[in-house]
Design goal:
Helix content: 40-55%
Radius of gyration: 48 Å
Family: Belongs to the XseA family.
Enzyme class: hydrolase
Number of strands: 15
Order of helices and strands: EEHEEEEEHEHEHEHEHEHHHHHEEE
CATH superfamily of the domain at 142-280: Hypothetical protein af1403, domain 2
Subcellular location: Cytoplasm
CATH class of the domain at 142-280: Alpha Beta
Pfam family, one: tRNA_anti_2
Number of helices: 11
CATH topology of the domain at 142-280: Rossmann fold
Shape: flat
Protein name: Exodeoxyribonuclease 7 large subunit
CATH architecture of the domain at 142-280: 3-Layer(aba) Sandwich
Length: about 475
Amino acid sequence: MHASDDYPTHHGGPEQGGTPPRHILTPSSLNRLVRDLLEDALPLIWIEGELSNVARPASGHLYFTLKDSAAQVRCAMFRPKSGWLKFKPVDGMHVLVRARVGLYEPRGEFQLVAEHMEPAGEGALQREFEQLKARLDAEGLFDAARKRPLPRYARRIGVITSATGAAIRDVLSVMSRRWPLADIEVMPVPVQGREAPPAIVQMLRKASASGRYDVLLLTRGGGSLEDLWAFNDEQVARAIHASAVPVVSAVGHEIDFSIADFVADLRAPTPSAAAELLVPDALALHRHLQQLKQRLTTLEQRRLQSRIQRVDHLLARLQAQRPQARLARDRERLLYLQRRLLGVQREQSQRRQATLDRVRARLQAQHPNQRLLLLRRRLEALAPRLRQTIERRLERERLTLRQTGRALHAISPLATLERGYAILFDAEGKVLRSARDVAVGTPLRARLADGELPLAVQPPAKRDEPARK
């Protein structure tokens, strides 16, 4: 019986009559065992708490402590996941972490290995956003079939936004530059805070019921998820859906998406982009009109030219009805037919000569000398391929032979002897399979990997004698 390297075996003293072996762990094997138990028992978990002792050494890993009012736990976030964070973790920040529970073996310290981290407040808002989005989508508020096209030349545009924000300045600047003919009416509402959603809903309903506007623009500048939250309100979404006038949503920057964007008839990435979508470009329209004018002039010139050509053609037909003209045409036709007949005769002669040349070439190709030459060339081309095929077949057979040799060596008794085992033979050369078959004093032979040893069976040691090592 061989003792395990991880769990050394110790026997009890003689007064205990040989107690069962004890498995003694080393600190490293204990920590490894505890780590395996923790990782097997606990899958990925979500944990929320306050950051402290945040450190990012030159390695790029992130180390920190996550705590609450009663306890704390050490955490680590390794590269490259630590580089994927969209915010800078600092002490005191409240975060939501997805992590694996583990143990740092060298120090035996319990820790969490973070896979993902997000600010706790923003994460809650994001979950609320996704839930509302899924519910409204299931109700059909986002269906593309219900979205209405925008008027090509809007005469009156209602802009629902903050009267003092940067968004309205961008919108007015772009629209006045592109299409000064549009009548822009600003309908001021708060775009942030608790009072914003009901004010936006009331203004949408008022603008829809007035019948004054060709299209409505709901917009504001960029900000955090909390800043844009008024445009993720369910009542605002339903007011946009119920509007009798097409609604364009331009909330935040290009990377920001709100519930209002999904419900609106059109989503613009920025307020300036929304202004460009709502009104045409006067300069581009002027160029287009100039192009149409040029096309109209060209068409009139072509029509006049066509009529002049038709008059000339009719005049030529009248002149062609005279007898002299008909005789001239017939003479020209006769000459044409003569040239065509000569051409047909030449073409037939050339075809027959080509056919004769092909037949002569085929007869030459069937000559025995030509066929023997082709077969000799084919034989010369096949000879290297045959040698390569034979060499590949021999190489496969050699590989199979080597693999079979290794397999036979792996199951050979000699290979077992090389790993430290031995075979016992009695005086007659038979293999011993049980200790009961041998009497005390019987000579034996032990077969090892590199030779044989003579042995003799001795009586067992008395119980009051110390055991030999």
